[in-house]
Every structure is written in C-alpha cells, then in structure tokens.
C-alpha cells in the first residue's frame, strides 16, 4: 500500500470510529515521517478536523480500511 496526498480512506469501525460509525480520513500533507490528515464523517464534505500523526500511527488507523479515492 502506498500513501499519497488526496487519498480518502473509510476506516473500519472496529479500529477507528465516531460513535460506532466509520470515519473518513483524507491525506492532506504527506512527509517522510508524518501525515497530516482531515477526519470527516462524510467523504464529500469539507467539514472535519485536521490532525497530525506519524506514518506508523496513521497506518494503524487505516488498518482494515477501504481506499475510496486515490
């Protein structure tokens, strides 16, 4: 799996969720060791929260996730 800016991931509710619903993560900025992403409740909305994580932590968040847009 190769990460790229603009990808949207639908997380598995078992791994990362909001009140039991899947969360959508869009990669905003990708650096060597960190990922800045936006956490949204719907994939086609602009509403969401910007967050930052290491690549290792981000990959754990998208474990069993589905890639919606590359």
Describe the structure.
The chain is mainly beta. The protein has one domain (8-69). 10% of the residues lie in helices and 44% in strands. The strands form two sheets. A five-stranded antiparallel beta sheet has the order 6-5-4-1-7. The model has no long low-confidence stretch (mean pLDDT 94).
Radius of gyration: 11 Å
Q: What distance lies between the first and last C-alpha atoms, to the nearest angstrom?
A: 11 Å
β-strand number: 7
Give the count of structural domains.
1
Mean pLDDT: 94
Q: What is the percentage of strand-forming residues?
A: 35-45%
The residue fraction in helices comes out at 10-25%
Kindly report the spatial arrangement of strands forming the biggest sheet.
6-5-4-1-7
Task: Give the helices and strands as they follow along the chain.
Answer: EEEEEEHE
Class from secondary-structure proportions: mainly beta
The shape is globular
Total number of helices:
1
Uncertain stretches of 5 or more adjacent residues: none
Largest sheet: 5 strands, antiparallel
Short description:
With 70 residues, the protein is mostly beta strands. Helices cover 10% and strands 44% of the residues. Strands 6-5-4-1-7 form a 5-stranded antiparallel sheet. The protein has a two-stranded antiparallel ribbon with strand order 2-3.
